Amino acid sequence: MEITDSNQSMIVCGESGSGKTESAKHLMRYFAYNSKKKDNNAGSGGDDTKESVAPPKPHKSGGDDDEDEGFQVEEQSIEKQVLAANPILEAFGNAKTILNNNSSRFGKFTKLVFDEEHPPGGTPHDSSQQHDPDAPPRKKIINPKFICGSFIETYLLEKSRVCKQEPGERNYHVFYHLCSDGGLDKATRDKYYLEAPDKYAYLIGGKTYTVDGINDPKLMKGLSKSMTSLKIDAEQQDQVFRIVSGVLHLGNIRFKPLSADSVAVEKECEVTVNQCATLFGVDEKALTARLTTRNITVSKQVITKPLSKADAEQNRDAMAKALYNGLFLWIVYKINRELFPVEARKDDLKVRVCGSSSSSSSSRGRSF
Ligand SMILES: Nc1ncnc2c1ncn2[C@@H]1O[C@H](COP(=O)(O)OP(=O)(O)O)[C@@H](O)[C@H]1O
Ligand SMILES: [Mg+2]
User: Which of 20, 208, 223, 277 is deepest in the core (most CB within 10 A)?
Assistant: First the structure.
C-alpha cells in the first residue's frame, strides 16, 4: 500500500473450518498493532495514554482472548474499537456447526481505512464536520500509517438457524451467552424471563448447549464491554437483548387449532405471549392477532383472515427470523457509524456510484 500508493485487497478463502476467520482476525490485529506502534514511535497526533494494542499472539479459542473479552471504555483508541467489532459480530453471526465450533454464518467484507495522521484523541471522526460543505478538501495520502476507521459489509446471514439446527449444532452464540449461568446477573436474566437453553424450542434442535473452548458467561460479559466500546450504550444494549430474548420466547409459542383453518395461542403459552409483548414493547393483543391472523388487502380494503396451525407456525418463525436479521443488520450499521470516517464514507459512495472496484487516486482512504 505504501509502495504502490493504491488500495490493497486480501482475500481469505478456504473450506469451512480451515481458519479464514482466525486468519482475518490475526491480520487485523497485525495492522492495529503496527498502527499503534507507529503512533508511539512518531510521538505525535495520538493520545498519550499508556494503552496499546497487544501484539498478534498465538490462537486461543472463544472467551480466552483479550479481544473476545472486549475492551474497556477508557481504552477508546480506534485500533481497539476496530478489533472490538469482531467479538460482537461473532456473538450475533457465528454458531457451532459440525465442522467448526465458531463458524461465521454470514459473508463479510472488512475495509480498513488508513491515514497518515492519527485521528485526534484516538476517535475515528468528528461527526460535527459531517455536513460541513466549507471543510477544506483532504490532501492526498502519501504515507498511510494509521488506521482511522473501518467499514464492514455483511452478506446473507443464515436465518434458518434462528429457528432450527441440525444435530450437534447450535443456534447463534448470543442466545447461549444470554442464557448462560453467570453471564448476566440474576435481576437482568429475570427481566428478560430467561431460563436454561434447553427450555427453548429454538435452541433444542441440535441438542448441544455448551461448546469446548467457548466460555458463554465470559463472552456475555465481554460482549457488553465491546458494545459499549462501540458506543452501543446501556439502553441500546438492553433493547438488543430484549429482542434476542423475545425471539427465544417467540419460539415457545404453540398454537391449538380452532378449526381446519384457524388457530388460537395454546392456553399455557399465553404467558409467553405476554412476555414477548413486554420485551418487544408492543401491545399483547396486537401481537396475538399478528401471530394468529393475517391481513389481506383487497381493493384497498384490509381483510383479516385466520391462519391454519401450519401457517401460524411458519408465520411465527418468519417473524423470529426477520427480527433477528434486522437486529444483526442494525448492529453492523451501528458499528459502521462509529468506525467509518466521514471522508471515507464519501469515497465509498463514489466507488458505489461508479460501480468501480477501487476508489480514485485522490481518495483519502486506503483500504484492505
Ligand atoms: N491460527 C490458528 N491456530 C490454532 N487454531 C486455529 C487457527 N486458525 C483456526 N484454528 C482453529 O480452527 C477453528 C476454525 O477456524 P475458523 O477461522 O473459524 O475457520 P473458517 O472461518 O475458515 O470456517 C477455530 O475455531 C480454531 O479452533
Ligand atoms: Mg469463519
Answer: 223
Per-residue pLDDT of 194-221, as tens digits, reads 999 999 999 999 999 999 999 999 999 9
Ligand index nearest the alpha carbon of residue 94:
2
Q: Which residues of 323-340 are buried (b: 16+ CB within 10 A; e: fewer)?
A: bbbebbeebbebbbebbb
- CA-based end-to-end distance of the chain: 9
Average pLDDT over residues 8-19: 92
Domains in the chain with CATH codes: 251-310 (1.20.120.720)
How many angstroms does the Cα of residue 170 sit away from the middle of ligand 2?
A: 15
- Phi-psi category of 63—alpha, beta or left, where left has phi over 0 and alpha has psi -120 to 50? left
In 3-state terms, what secondary structure has residue 304?
A: strand
Give me the residue label for grid cell 458505489.
352
Residue 257 CA to ligand 2 centre (angstroms): 42
With a Cβ cut-off of 6 Å, ligand 1 is lined by: 14, 16-22, 59, 61, 100-104
226 is written with which cell numbers?
Answer: 465491546
Find the ligand nearest to 12 CA. 1
Nearest C-alpha neighbor of 218 from the set 78, 79, 60, 105 = 60
